[in-house]
């Protein structure tokens, strides 16, 4: 995940606390003081070495985008070992199981993603140096899967009974090319569609890190095709390279104000075959992002409108005696925009628990699995799973294991999960 912006939150003024918020805070206090929560935290401490062990086991099973199957199979055995019910892998590869509550009409989903950004063949052997555990993908998001397994076992061991079912999911497709296909399937097609009341996604990070807004994006690969020819012999005919250059220039001249964290990028330009050939094909990939669905649409509309103009321009400027320039724009990624309001139950519970634990809160906008429910109006947050990692998406990625600090954060997250299922 990539953080775009963050804000430190102030302390709520006591005089503004409403009756509902008071009841909320009362529930939180009651649960944190309960015998069962005490037992759950004790279990987490005893199980901590397993979190580290399973983080290593999972990390060493490669899970490149679209190749999460092997890791998914292992994760399924871990879910089965916790005693969850209805453990299964769905059509797209999401691995999940139910922690049964008293009511079954609605479900809280708690997820961490199976996929990493690293291609097949990457060395994923974990190297340990003191309390640093280094391997590509170990933090984002593998450690959260292991934390989730321990959290489920702690719930089971302490016999905590929730009001609603909790669906624990190791989902596919969070990273770039995956295009959130795991969560999209879960919310739009899967068997829990329409039943999900709220959603928590864990990513590596400290307790208190809250992603409450989803940056949307739209991505294209655009191919420009032409007749091609000899650079000398066919000089004067149309070239797809010039059409693409024109399109890129027009794109950078977007006439509207770029507000609400709206950005654009031409990431890959490629094509042609040799220095003395007029290319017959060139292409580019383009990324547009925004925290506003409207602003993203306006930028997208503008981009789509300049492509035929750039092509027309080239066809009128140079000779089309050997053929014309054409283009094809393929959408290669689309992530919806969303936000979870601070007066929602999920935010109030999360804020309340973190504050009780004394964690400074910071909220940020990012592109995560929570984008999908947020865009559908389903309350969702992405939270730090309690173990911090560094150099995400780089071969130098590492985790820092600090048992006491990690356990405190994981316990806080367990309370957030339970309170959101009540
Ligand atoms: Zn991630």
Fold and architecture overview:
- The chain contains ten helices and 20 strands.
- It has helices spanning 19-32, 35-59, 69-82, 138-158, 181-188, 240-252, 293-317, 345-356, 371-375, 403-420; strands at 3-8, 85-89, 95-99, 103-113, 127-129, 132-134, 164-171, 196-203, 209-214, 216-225, 229-230, 263-271, 277-278, 281-290, 326-335, 338-339, 362-366, 380-384, 389-390, 398-400.
- The longest helix is centred in the N-terminal third of the chain and has 25 residues, at 35-59.
- The strands form four sheets. Strands 1, 2, 3, 4, 7, 8, 9, 16, 17 and 18 form a ten-stranded mixed sheet that branches. Strands 5-6-20-19 form a four-stranded antiparallel sheet, with helices on one face.
- Residues 1-6 and 9-16 have low confidence and may be disordered.
- Strand 19 and strand 20 (398-400) form a beta hairpin.
- Helix 6 runs antiparallel to helix 7 (293-317).
- The protein folds into two domains: 3-10 and 18-214 and 337-420, Zn peptidases (Aminopeptidase, 3-Layer(aba) Sandwich); 216-335, 2-Layer Sandwich (Alpha-Beta Plaits).
- By secondary structure, the chain is α+β, with helices and mostly antiparallel strands.
- It binds zinc ion (ZN).
- Zinc ion (ZN) binds next to helix 4.
